[in-house]
Structures
1.
Amino acid sequence: YALQGSRWRVKNLTYKISKYPSRLNRDEVDTELAKAFSVWSDYTDLTFTQKRSGQVHIEIRFEKGEHGDGDPFDGPGGTLAHAYFPVYGGDAHFDDAEMWSINSLRGTNLFQVAAHEFGHSLGLSHSDVRTALMAPFYRGYNKAFQLDQDDIQGIQALYGHKTQLDVGGSFPSPSAPRITTPQPSAEDPALCADPNIDTIFNSADGATFVFKGEHYWRLTENGVAAGYPRLISRSWPGLTGNIDAAFTYKNGKTYFFKGSKYWRYNGQKMDGQYPKEISEGFTGIPDNLDAALVWSGNGKIYFYKGSKFWRFDPAQRPPVKSTYPKPLSNWEGIPDNIDAALQYTNGYTYFFKGGSYWRFNDRTFSVDTDNPAFPRSTGYWWLGCSSAPKGTVGGNAKYIHHDHDDDDEVGDITF
Amino acid sequence: APAFGETNKAMMYLAQYGYLSPSVRNPSSGHIMDESSWKKAIAEFQSFAGLNTTGELDEETKNLMSLPRCGVKDKVGFGESRSKR
């Protein structure tokens, strides 16, 4: 993602549609644009309120050709819309010569384009991640639209993580899956009896998978999806069981690690000739890893093994700096010898060990404080095990307190 | 003539989205550009869009340039940036 450099100082923003499109129903436009704003408010504490008159933060207009800002529209195709960054007022203009459509494969989908433009209104520039909403090219109507991790990281870099539910009370902020009452139907008795996991990762399309032995489960908001477990080898042909670590990188590819080998998949299709040696593809990273993740703090890949961790940056030569490995105790509150780690779709980082998990706060750079405190039961909060404890559970977390000086010990960012 | 037309169109496109100076889009300014600036601009666009960075106005690049897109510049602030010491 790329930030333009300006953002709103307030989180409660107002908008007004000053000029509606000529070919769509006004109520439907209101609904679609509210939906487009909610794409961003789902992941932050931003709120968007429509006003019919008066001063607003973001003004929206559907215009044709030259419309007063010196950047004329070009008719159907070409430029679809443009929007101004917060420092320039945040207004969004849509080319009324386009065939705007709603829930249809025909025409240009209003919701998707509006969600993109509002990203600019909030301070996001174009992303070079193809799958991101903030990529500049229109990708066609996608019924199952989901914000890309890249977009989530971008908006949260500007406005922070979401801490409140939209309606009613607060949810265990900012928690893992939004589970309040695990559904019995979403339980797997065997998994609940032994909730230790080998690895957990998000696929490029945002689904979360848990691997254990030869099997895997897809997680839902209520626990595990129906129809699981399934065999890893059947869904990811060529991959074996008992995987050590996995992550999906921003190129959309998923990497699996086991022993001295690694595999790369594009979705569930092997992406070339694998397995390969970790020492070849990930120079500087040891074999027999415990866990791996792409950290939301800086987008770099972190590998964990025993009491140490390594930071891997494919864009650097060498990709692992000579100052690594570093002690895992730098991740304050996280125990050694973890089983799995994940950057979840809410942008937070989670560490798993022995049926317990810890949520890491990238801002305080320590395990999050919340009620119930961490570690919590993986069974209850992630796997939907209704009989598992809801509160704090045992874990061998080492709470090491030390002051961070100007040289952070995890990445080249300033805390 | 067709080749010139395509080049001219691509030049306008690259200027519109921040890869070349906005003065390229001004028909009253007889804009002359050296080949390296032109190739660099195409390569930057190709790199941003995830294409092979050939620096040539190939078919794949032209196809991408013809796609509907957002009108906001990919590279904000052309010509306004200062080099970092």
Note: Chain A has seven helices and 26 strands.
2.
Amino acid sequence: PCLQRKIAEYFISG
Amino acid sequence: MLELRLVQGSLLKKVLESIKDLVNDANFDCSATGFSLQAMDSSHVALVALLLRSEGFEHYRCDRNISMGMNLGNMAKMLKCAGNDDIITLKADDGSDTVTFMFESPTQDKIADFEMRLMDIDSEHLGIPEAEYHAILIMPSAEFARICKDLSSIGDTVVISVTKEGVKFSTRGDIGTANVVCRQNTTVDKPEEATVIEMPEPVSLTFALRYLNSFTKATPLSNTVTISLSSEIPVVVEYKIAEMGYIRFYLAPKIEE
């Protein structure tokens, strides 16, 4: 099984 | 006061058709640079970034930076009422809670205006860091759309693997497996038919086909698509919008647990 990452884990908020 | 006149109105129609199913509501930002949007899908797995540069508009007036919240489904409904050859003008007065889309037929014998209510959208703006990609794949957009569609009838995820030999799209599902290999091919009659793999460092990443299929709704915007891959970071699927800018889709990878 693969875990779907969220986009905000890679990009900087703000 | 905002007034943006786009002679090739069909571009805006195509942009909306390509993102309306991925993103429900979004803020369109208007500045001296251009008309732009950044938004995530509702599950925060994909992000879309659109830029239509001010130089691409026949008339571009934006007195101050403004952000206009719109429901993309409603905006798409309004733009569907514009003819493919129509000139589209967006207008908004300072402090107004509406935007007006004006559609002019090429012969000026029909002029329509549609007013839409704006929304307050509390959206998170993400900074996208500069990344060096291990592999950049440029291929006909229709070919990429075909591969995503075909593979999604077999499985839910695709493994995109780049080697010096080419790029392989693989999936597996209950009924079996599928692999599509595209080799670099620059000996074609037209440059837009070429498949080019730049900086082919070996890279292999897994993505949900549902999102890639959604991105391919932007296929009518460009004959080619550029897919940038690097280990363990989101893929970028970019459709250039002739003379004006781009629409970029970012998709977070799936990682083995």
Note: Chain B has a mean pLDDT of 95.
